[in-house]
Amino acid sequence: MGSILVGTCSWTDPALVAGGWYPPDARDAEGRLRYYAGRFAVVEVDATYYGLPSTRNSELWAARTPPGFVFDVKAFSLLTGHSTRIGALPRQLRPAGSERAWVRPGALPPAAVEEVWQRFADALEPLRAAGRLGAVLMQFPPSLRPGPGAEEFVARCLERAGALGWRTAVEFRDPGWYGPERSARTVALAGRYRSALVAVDTARGLPASVPPVAVATVPELSVVRFHGRSPHWGTGGKEDAYRHRYAKEELMEWVPRIRALAERTEQVHVLFNNCCGDAAVGAAETMDRLLA
């Protein structure tokens, strides 16, 4: 039986910081991370999707957490084919004379995209060197629908990540990747590039709903991400789409699936992404007790 690490997607969410979960003496960034790491063994860093991380932050994260604590890190938006805020790019890589607020990877010169990959990798190196880098989450956009071109793009991304020495977890947002006629091919694609296929929990019965496919694709790692069951999944803004407080019965559905993954992999990361005050940490604490 592999180990099961439970945590949340972010320890710095403003609603969590303001919600009273942190004690009064955990008032700064260091205090909050140390407090969080005393209660959970894994966290997902989502801020790295919106902006390139820094080497200094990686050094501080490693220094402020105990041995065995790991950080899963979400890949910068440009690397997985999402539209990216031009202001999030290093100044020298921004398109000259562009008046657009957003840019897609295809609109940048290949050298600029390569530079972004390298900067992202350099920033994660202190975590990797310290043994604290869990998985790099390669989350692809809903617009990436299954097909030969999409598979080729995913393969290039995972090959590039593997060459950097990262363990990766791949998550698709278009439910077509997990459909009955497609699921086996998606599982094989993840396994071919030594990537964990993320199992997700979302609202059921909506056009954007992703089915709960929980399959171990590599022996080292499995990842499960709980996005909440909001009826606004796939249509609303972040606050509406992820706002959900899990009932114990909803979490119990996943206990046998998570244990089955742990029978096939060395480590399972179970991460809660349902933002609403302390909803994510509360669900993570409940799941920890259920699995124990």
Automatic annotation (TrEMBL):
It holds the Pfam family DUF72. It comes from the Bacteria. This is DUF72 domain-containing protein.
